[in-house]
Design brief:
Blueprint (H helix, E strand, L loop, with lengths): L1 H16 L16 H7 L2 H34 L4 H11 L2 H19 L6 H25 L3 H9 L4 H29 L3 H6 L7 H9 L5 H24 L1 H7 L1
Helix pairs in contact: 1-11, 2-11, 3-6, 3-8, 3-10, 4-6, 6-8, 6-12, 7-8, 8-11, 11-12
Pfam families: BPD_transp_1
Family: Belongs to the binding-protein-dependent transport system permease family. CysTW subfamily.
GO cellular component, one term: plasma membrane
Amino acid sequence: MLTYAFLYLPLVIVVLYSFNDSRLNAEWVGFTLKWYDKLFHNEKMLSAAANSLVIGILASFFSTIFGTLAGIALHRYKLKLLPFLVLTPIAIPELLMGVSLVIFFVIVNQLIGILELGFVTILLSHIAFCIGFVAIVVRARMQGMDDSLVEAARDLGASPFQAFRLITLPVIKPGIIAGALMAFTLSIDDFVITFFTAGAGASMLPLEIYSMIKIAVTPEVNAVSSLLMLLTLALIVIASRVSPSALRANG
């Protein structure tokens, strides 16, 4: 019980003080919704949220495609190097990955001159980071599949693509959806990798929140944090209902 209180009590406080009728979070003054109203009229914050949303959608789309293929390959082909290549971005610290990515992008930009730090580099970084998570979820789903069904379909004259579309895809579909939702969640609230690969002009939601709390943790920060928390929890609930084994595989 104490462990759960330690984990979730700070989150409850953040949500509670987003309704505090005081600019300082020192004490509770009264209930108000003005901080949410102010947030929804903050064009800079809304622009950053829109950028993060677009990055999250695109990153989850492409990482789901590549992660699904990687998860199937991890299940079917026992190559020693493949798990290392797919799962390394998950295992290494985000700080190290962010530094390595920004160095890579800078070198590429010096060589070809068309890859400056910004929207594209953030998107590529998030895709690379999320592929491994999707692959783990899909592989976990593949492990519960009877491979003889695919072999039977092939014996009955189905092409490899038909066997995949009619047999494999329906079985792993819950894992694909759960992986896509997880990739979106990881992308939209990632700070470390985004911080290194964003460049000077990029406006992203985690970076805007960070710039706000450097001055003071105002109820407006609590409000945007509460909304982001709500979105994340909603996606986690959906993912767990679509594929209960997905979250256990990542646990």
